[in-house]
Automatic annotation (TrEMBL), chain A:
<dbReference type="GO" id="GO:0070847">
    <property type="term" value="C:core mediator complex"/>
</dbReference>
<keyword id="KW-0010">Activator</keyword>
<dbReference type="GO" id="GO:0016592">
    <property type="term" value="C:mediator complex"/>
</dbReference>
<dbReference type="Pfam" id="PF10156">
    <property type="entry name" value="Med17"/>
</dbReference>
<dbReference type="GO" id="GO:0003712">
    <property type="term" value="F:transcription coregulator activity"/>
</dbReference>
<comment type="subunit">
    <text>Component of the Mediator complex, which is composed of MED1, MED4, MED6, MED7, MED8, MED9, MED10, MED11, MED12, MED13, MED13L, MED14, MED15, MED16, MED17, MED18, MED19, MED20, MED21, MED22, MED23, MED24, MED25, MED26, MED27, MED29, MED30, MED31, CCNC, CDK8 and CDC2L6/CDK11. The MED12, MED13, CCNC and CDK8 subunits form a distinct module termed the CDK8 module. Mediator containing the CDK8 module is less active than Mediator lacking this module in supporting transcriptional activation.</text>
</comment>
<keyword id="KW-0539">Nucleus</keyword>
<comment type="function">
    <text>Component of the Mediator complex, a coactivator involved in the regulated transcription of nearly all RNA polymerase II-dependent genes. Mediator functions as a bridge to convey information from gene-specific regulatory proteins to the basal RNA polymerase II transcription machinery. Mediator is recruited to promoters by direct interactions with regulatory proteins and serves as a scaffold for the assembly of a functional preinitiation complex with RNA polymerase II and the general transcription factors.</text>
</comment>
<dbReference type="InterPro" id="IPR019313">
    <property type="entry name" value="Mediator_Med17"/>
</dbReference>
UniProtKB/TrEMBL annotation, chain B:
<comment type="similarity">
    <text>Belongs to the Mediator complex subunit 20 family.</text>
</comment>
<dbReference type="Pfam" id="PF08612">
    <property type="entry name" value="Med20"/>
</dbReference>
<dbReference type="GO" id="GO:0016592">
    <property type="term" value="C:mediator complex"/>
</dbReference>
<keyword id="KW-0010">Activator</keyword>
<dbReference type="InterPro" id="IPR013921">
    <property type="entry name" value="Mediator_Med20"/>
</dbReference>
<dbReference type="GO" id="GO:0003713">
    <property type="term" value="F:transcription coactivator activity"/>
</dbReference>
<dbReference type="GO" id="GO:0006357">
    <property type="term" value="P:regulation of transcription by RNA polymerase II"/>
</dbReference>
<keyword id="KW-0804">Transcription</keyword>
<protein>
    <recommendedName>
        <fullName>Mediator of RNA polymerase II transcription subunit 20</fullName>
    </recommendedName>
</protein>
Amino acid sequence: MSGVRAVRISIESACEKQVQEVGLDGTETYLQPLSMSQNLARLAQRIDFSQGSGSEEEEAAGAEGDTQDWAGAGSSADQDDEEGLVKFQPSLWPWDSVRNNLRSALTEMCVLYDVLSIVRDKKFMTLDPVSQDALPPKQNPQTLQLISKKKSLAGAAQILLKGAERLTKSVTENQENKLQRDFNSELLRLRQHWKLRKVGDKILGDLSYRSAGSLFPHHGTFEVIKNTDIDLDKKIPEDYCPLDVQIPSDLEGSAYIKVSIQKQAPDIGDLGTVNLFKRPLPKSKPGSPHWQTKLEAAQNVLLCKEIFAQLSREAVQIKSQIPHIVVKNQIISQPFPSLQLSISLCHSSNDKKSQKSATEKQSPEDHLYVLEHNLHLLIREFHKQTLSSIMMPHPASAPFGHKRMRLSGPQAFDKNEINSLQSSEGLLEKIIKQAKHIFLRSRTAATIDSLASRIEDPQIQAHWSNINDVYESSVKVLITSQGYEQICKSIQLQLNIGVEQIRVVHRDGRVITLSHQEQELQDFLLSQFVMDLRVAVRLWFSFPVTSVKIFQKAMFYKIANGVIFVDHSKKFSGIKWKVETLFIKWNCLCLHLALIFSRNFDLEYLQINYKHKEAITSKDVHLAFETFHFI
Amino acid sequence: MGVESVSQMPVAEGKSVQQTVELLTRKLEILGAEKQGTFCVDCETYHTAASTLGSQGQAGKLMYVMHNSEYPLSCFALFENGPCLIADTNFDVLMVKLKGFFQSAKASKIETRGTRYQYCDFLVKVGTVTMGPSARGISVEVEYGPCVVASDCWSLLLEFLQSFLGSHTPGAPAVFGNRHDSVYGPADTMVQYMELFNKIRKQQQVPVAGIR
């Protein structure tokens, strides 16, 4: 403050004038600031008459600022009213809204004043208090709590009931829609198992094996229909299905191929009258719907028809020594002279009529299930062959046919190799070969079993091999004597049972081929029995001899332990046996049997003779008999 | 598949081709061979077209297209000293398409036809070589089935040939000399036949000239 020169401070107000426009030469035109009255008018416009007492104070403060204007406004307002017409011109006069609001407030106040003055007189209007319900006694808060709880619970219950109602509505809707929607889901399930296609407005399916390689000309189409015969009012049955399939009429029912072998040929008149027996329908899986079983049965019928058609075509075309007979639904052929193989297609429909007639059932004992199964396998094999990559050309430009046949040109195959490529056997031939083999095998087994049961000594053992071919089986036959199995091992026969003959391989290397005749095998086995005896006897009864003395009817052989006395027995000489009996005087007796012809060996005969011997000689001979029998 | 030896049997003095063939077949039947059908080997000649020759004017190469009934689904195409192609029978159709490059020589088809005889492991084929309507010679082919290596069984073949051909036994074929220890194939047989046909073709030209 002392000595410092005073500084001139210029003050400028912050609010500059607003720029209205900027001229082209840079000069600015300023807006004139609002005058006091203009400002007031602006503020008055902003008054909100609907607010509370706070705004009234503002209003009052604003109004006191310029009484002159207000008075002028009030007079002009009266003038307007006297005119009677209120023209809405908000932009011209800012005090209009203020005036209107004040006028309405005045009106209200006048009315209130009038009413109050009338009520004060009590002549024409009285004031009466409004009747109110008696307030609940405030001394009982529990009742109040109870009532409040009840109310709140009722509210909650209302909400829950609303929700439950909505749920039940949706569930009932679902039930109703279920019938419509289920058809589609069933259709989806059907589509997962079978091929379907839509033709126009019909849904058709294919149950033939064409896509798997079959060349059978049957169309195999089935139709899918909607099951509409359902009464919504009645209870829906448990096995109800909204979908139904309609299979072609010739594939209805069930079918199977019956393969049987009969020993005696029936009369010609009986041909064609194959007694079918209704095989019980194969049990379907418990969860599978009824259309699945229906379609599977129809497909099986189609496959059986195809098999039978192929077999009958081959039976007619292929030339064989004994021609095959094809009658109605049966193919008869003779694999062996006294044997008859009949293959028939048994197709039983589901009609009630046929069910009645099929009560007299044919015994299914002679039906060979194995061959039926093999037929199915063979036809599937044939199907696969047509689709296999061996047949399909690789690359795509190569010609059709077996892959190796295409190579036979460039690799210069000769006729043998080409023939080996082409499979010349048809279905019928294969099945006949299999049937022959099965028959031969069963008969061989029966022969061996009958021999084993008939002949107690020596014993025959048969070890059948588990791993067999369709056309070949093998069995190892051992002929042994009881107690001497380890020693007498030389009779071991390997029988290879083929399609038409049996090949026997002996342990010592000989190979003998037997035909299909039963007797031949029996004779051969019997001959082997005798060989066993001969070997056994030889082993046990060879003693070293030191000196020999020959007499007229007997010979004396001196051995280490004593003397062997040989007597020529005439009873056994001849075509069957030549027997030399030896007996030692001291401890034991032994027998030497020399076998000359071994054809019809008969043990019983020998035993009888030795029994006779037993009766007339001493106990030494008895011992001999036992010894012999022991072998 | 075995080892085959192709040779020519000269026509006997004073006899026709047919009679000589009959002699041979009778000999074989006495030996114990059994007849097993017929066979046919034929050969067509093509030469490379003039348009494909170079400016040096090389001689056109000769290509032989042959068929053998022993390999019914095959067709053989071979050059003189060159490779032998074994193809499918569609090759004949292909040759028609290749007319621009290969032209068939005139009157070139030569073939041999006859009977097959099987004698244990040996297969003997005696055939008459014909060119057009005239018979030009006799071809004898002997195959030994079990062996596939030429050098191993040539001596056996020779012995067998001697037994029924007698003095007309041929020497070892040139094909055997090339590859001693390799496997014998049908291509080698066709090469032998081609050489035989060429020889017969050249042979006949002499008597024709002689007649004039």
